[in-house]
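Give me structure tokens for this 217-residue protein.
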Amino acid sequence: MRNVTSPPATGLRPRGVSRRERWSRRLPLLPALIYTIIVTQVPFLVTLWYSFQSYFWNEPGGAHWTGVSNYKEVFTDPSFRSALVRSVTMTAIAVIVAMLLGIALAVLLDKKFLGRSIVRTLIITPFLVMPAAAALVWAGADARPELRAAETTCLSRSASTTSPWLTTHAYGSVIVVMIWQWTPFMTLIVLAGLQGQAQDTLEAAKVDGAKRVGNLP
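Here you go.
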């Protein structure tokens, strides 16, 4: 067996990237970075500044500093804690269900069948709908407050027969809408991961699986 020796050390170190070269690489990204900071961080800082003040747009006198009194009022409000728990629960349920449905749909769409491109386009359509438009699509005419008030004043019809599901089960309906809108997003993520796998790895796995099946007694 031939001995392989490492090349002799020359004492030379690889040349580092100069500061000018680093800035030349970052400079094309600078406009996008500045735009992102202006659009996202400046409004956040302004909102944070107003959160420590007492300010009402419809009252004269302007804003005045109140410290953390606004935060104390919010976090000590029982309704806030209840709303926070419901929001976390609603988000967790919607994400878990949407992820499970997205995995199932991605596995199906990864297979070859007639009209696969059309089915993919139709499935991702809910994700392209704006939230305001989705709310209008799901909210029927019976869910409007003025019609709901008119129904409650009608004595000849009971509330149980006139209340639509969207009105009587608002919490569940919001979860359904979130699942409907975010399942395509989960499907796209999982489908991209499935299609990003190397073909040689998949073929090797198929061959390995075929050998294992053939070796079974």
